[in-house]
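hiii so um. not sure if this is the right channel but i have a protein structure encoded as tokens and i wanna go backwards to a sequence. like what aa goes where. can anyone help
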């Protein structure tokens, strides 16, 4: 994990701890589900049986989006850049089969070369990433990848694993599971949502399992075929990630999974691009507007490992 990710995780943990300092009424898990907070096995059984429907995913994204943006650095305060990103993203969002999602993409005031997605269709794109995308296709590839995580309910799948709650106390895990259990009257109550914020931050910014990352990459190919972007151009962003991140770096992001794995993902995208249509790159004033604020860096500034 990078120093920046460590700092963000500590900030999120402080928020979670603050939320857990409220009265016992904020812990419905003990009363509703008869959890023995001293037995982690009870938490494990709840995680496996946890049910999250589309309404739960939407509520999770709505409730966590603002706080996660603030934790990551806040909204980038340039309305032209925000409008330009939204205009590019909406073309991708129109391909979604999740019509109930309130899809949204915003520029986050964070210099890490990363993007992330919450359940329900909420996407953050760090300004650091915008400095390294050299074409609209590359930006669209990053957006379509993150869109795939939301479209395919990846966070809801990861939330059912014990690893999602790693590092939290048993009581915090119980509160988080209660907040994310569809049997409760409204997802995201009190301390439970504060508990979910930390592991959700870790998940969406640091990446998913190998299988789910490949699924999100395949979503790029599927979406590009519908919109008309070029997969071969879009995949070049992964080449950039390999260039700017040291080969021995241990940290991962939502888009970068370490050099060997990212190289394999790039190879898979290249193979897919061979069968995909190739299109001419067109001038888009929205992407040009973004590049006015974030000129593409040709001399790479390597990130810490």
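sure thing!! here u go:
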């Amino acid at each position: 994990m990078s120093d920046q990710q460590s700092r963000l995780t500590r900030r999120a943990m402080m928020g979670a701890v603050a939320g857990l300092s409220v009265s016992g009424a904020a812990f419905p898990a003990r009363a509703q589900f008869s959890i023995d907070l001293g037995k982690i096995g009870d938490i494990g059984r709840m995680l496996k049986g946890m049910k999250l429907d589309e309404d739960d995913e939407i509520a999770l994204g709505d409730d966590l989006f603002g706080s996660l943006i603030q934790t990551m650095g806040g909204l980038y305060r340039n309305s032209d850049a925000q409008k330009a990103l939204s205009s590019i993203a909406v073309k991708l969002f129109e391909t979604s089969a999740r019509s109930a999602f309130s899809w949204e993409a915003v520029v986050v005031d964070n210099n890490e070369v990363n993007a992330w997605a919450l359940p329900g269709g909420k996407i953050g794109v760090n300004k650091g990433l915008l400095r390294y995308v050299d074409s609209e296709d590359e930006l669209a590839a990053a957006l379509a990848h993150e869109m795939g995580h939301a479209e395919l309910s990846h966070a809801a799948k990861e939330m059912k694993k014990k690893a999602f709650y790693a590092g939290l106390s048993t009581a915090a895990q119980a509160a988080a599971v209660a907040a994310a259990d569809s049997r409760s009257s409204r997802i995201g109550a009190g301390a439970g949502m504060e508990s979910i914020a930390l592991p959700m931050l870790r998940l969406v910014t640091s990446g998913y399992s190998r299988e789910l990352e490949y699924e999100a990459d395949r979503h790029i190919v599927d979406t590009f075929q519908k919109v008309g972007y070029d997969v071969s151009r879009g995949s070049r962003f992964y080449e950039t990630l390999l260039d700017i991140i040291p080969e021995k770096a241990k940290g991962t992001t939502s888009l970068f999974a370490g050099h060997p794995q990212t190289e394999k993902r790039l190879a898979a995208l290249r193979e897919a691009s061979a069968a995909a249509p190739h299109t001419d790159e067109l001038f888009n004033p929205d992407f040009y507007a973004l590049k006015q604020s974030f000129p593409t860096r040709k001399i790479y500034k390597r990130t810490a490992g």
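oh and The longest strand covers residues 104-108.
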